[in-house]
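queue> pop job 88
queue> type: inverse folding (structure -> sequence)
queue> payload:
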């Protein structure tokens, strides 16, 4: 039977944020607590947060949790998590036991994509690719209102695909922590932008400083941002060629660069294998709140 409240939890490296939503998506309650650095305390923190949100919202709810990792197929153990104390643990099952109800866990980038597809910048679209451009680069796929996880639980992980159509001076590409070179993350993350600017100019600036300098008319920073926009368009064109989504939603810190979404959309036709490109590239609507809202949306209204 559908519940009147949906609880979403965004388990981050420094904070755990929770929200209670009505069936229509209205926010009923919101809380935030520091993230403990061990497993047992993390379980207690999430359990307490859920109960506090339900008490404030005045009703019990479904529970969805976004984590900075994913669940290994077959075992449901956490893998690839930045919060390393979760790795190899049955976090979902343990939360279910503590709360006495089913709990759905999902990668936080998938939660972002789901939030923006449900009632955000891509609301109403049948196919959505959500992009995270931050300290790292990730993504999520939503088809028909549901997250496409994939057979290996890595649906949307485009950050570790290689930069498409590289020029000679872009090869072999920067080394990536995954062990390969030239991954999109090494170009399109905030640190990747800073690395590229330093390599081109010898000037060590942070990503925010580069964006500000480009906006102020600095030619070297403007050239760095031009390379960034072109590389983003190439990366997104690869996704469009494979998935052909109606909407691409940009999230993460770099998505806030003025005009970035429009510039990426304008550059797509040069790389997409089609004589028409109707895919829209848009900036997020819910911003930092998309992760926690998407976790709540892991339970559709009709469940």
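queue> result:
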């Amino acid at each position: 039977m559908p519940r009147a409240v949906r609880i979403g939890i965004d388990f981050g490296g420094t904070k755990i944020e929770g929200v209670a939503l009505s069936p229509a998506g209205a926010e009923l309650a919101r809380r935030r607590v520091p993230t403990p650095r061990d497993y047992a305390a993390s379980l207690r923190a999430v359990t307490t947060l859920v109960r506090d949100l339900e008490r404030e919202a005045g009703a019990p709810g479904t529970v969805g949790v976004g984590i900075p990792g994913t669940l290994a197929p077959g075992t449901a153990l956490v893998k690839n998590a930045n919060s390393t104390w979760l790795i190899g643990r049955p976090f979902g099952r343990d939360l279910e036991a503590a709360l006495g109800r089913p709990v759905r866990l999902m990668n936080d980038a998938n939660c972002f994509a789901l939030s923006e597809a449900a009632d955000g910048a891509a609301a109403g679209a049948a196919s959505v690719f959500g992009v995270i451009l931050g300290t790292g680069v990730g993504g999520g796929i939503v088809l028909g209102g549901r997250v496409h996880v994939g057979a290996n639980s890595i649906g949307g992980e485009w950050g570790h695909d290689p930069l498409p159509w590289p020029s000679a001076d872009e090869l072999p590409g920067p080394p990536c922590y995954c062990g390969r070179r030239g991954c999109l993350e090494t170009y399109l993350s905030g640190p990747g932008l800073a690395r590229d600017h330093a390599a081109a100019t010898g000037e060590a600036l942070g990503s925010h400083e580069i964006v500000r300098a480009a906006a102020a008319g600095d030619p070297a920073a403007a050239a760095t941002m031009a390379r960034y926009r072109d590389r983003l368009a190439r990366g997104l064109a690869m996704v469009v060629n494979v998935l052909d989504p109606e909407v691409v939603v940009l999230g993460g810190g770099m998505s806030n660069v003025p005009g970035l979404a429009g510039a990426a959309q304008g550059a797509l036709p040069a790389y997409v294998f089609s004589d028409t490109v109707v895919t829209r590239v848009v900036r997020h609507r819910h911003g930092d709140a998309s992760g926690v809202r998407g976790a709540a949306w892991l339970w559709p209204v009709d469940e």
